[in-house]
Amino acid sequence: MRFTRDELLSYRDATVPDLLGPGLRLLFVGINPGLWSAATGTHFARPGNRFYPALAAAGITDHLIDAGSGMADADRGQLVARGVGITNIVARATARADELAAAELRDGADRLAAKVGSLGPRVVAVAGITAYRVGFGRPKARLGRQPETIAGAELWAVPNPSGLNAHESVASLADAYRAAARAAGLCLPGNGADGEA
Predict the structure, then answer these.
(1) Span 63-119, pLDDT tens digits
(2) How far apart are CA 165 and CA 107, in angstroms?
(3) What is the side-by-side strand order in the sheet with 123-127?
(4) Where would I find the H helices in the chain?
(5) Residue 113 to residue 48: CA distance in whole angstroms
(6) What is the pLDDT of the chain when averaged over all its residues?
(7) CA distance 163 to 101
(8) CA distance 41 to 57
(9) To 10 degrees, the CA torsion angle through 163, 75, 181, 26?
(10) 38 pLDDT exceeds 90?
(11) Which residues contact 63 (CB under 8 A, 6 or more apart)?
C-alpha cells in the first residue's frame, strides 16, 4: 500500500482505535499515531517501524506481523489472545511526535491512568522515554521498570520503535519488550510452561 503526501496529510488529527481485549496483561502505549498509522487504522504501521519485528524477536508474537497495509484480523486476534493491547498517550495523529505540546502529553497521561484503571493490565509499557518524561512529569526517568505504578499496574518506559530512534536495534527493542512481557506474565519461549507469574 502506498499513500501520496497529500493523502497522508488528510489524516492529520485522525485517531486509531485501541487494540484491546479481555484478559489484558500488557498494554503498550505509543506516543501518538503517525499519519501512516491513521491511514491504515493500525498502530505502529509505518514501513520501517520496528515494533512488530521486535515483538516477533521477543517471542511475544509467533510470527512477524505485517501492519504496513493495516493489520489482519488473525494478527489482531493473536495479540488479544496473548493478553497484549495497544493504545497511545495522545490520540490524534501527527506527522511527527514533536508536533505535540507538553500539555497534550500530560493530559494524555492522565487519561491513560483512567483507562488503565478500568482495563486492569499487569504492566503498562510506554514506548518513548522523552514522551514518558514529559507526560508523567519525570524528567530524569530512565528506561525500564519505573518506581511508581499507574492505576495499580507496573509502569515501564521502553524504547520507541520508530526508525528515527537510531540508538536502538530490533534486538535491543526485543530485549526491552521481552522484559516487560515477562513482568506481565506472558508465556514466552524460555520462561516456563504457562508464563504465569
Answers:
(1) 999 999 999 999 999 999 999 999 999 999 999 988 999 999 999 999 999 999 999
(2) 24
(3) 84-88, 26-30, 123-127, 153-158, 144-150
(4) 5-9, 35-40, 51-58, 73-81, 102-119, 129-135, 170-183
(5) 30
(6) 94
(7) 22
(8) 24
(9) 100
(10) yes
(11) 56
What is the C-alpha to C-alpha distance for residues 121 and 44, in angstroms, rounded to an integer? Answer: 20
Cell 491511514 found at: 39
d(C-alpha 125, C-alpha 132), whole Å = 10
Residue 90 cell numbers, joined: 495522545
pLDDT at 44 over 50: yes
pLDDT digits (tens, 9 = 90+) for 167-192: 899 999 999 999 999 999 998 887 64
Q: Is the pLDDT of residue 195 over 50?
A: no
End-to-end CA distance of the chain: 40
The three cell numbers locating residue 165: 530512534
Q: How far apart are CA 88 and CA 74, in angstroms?
A: 22
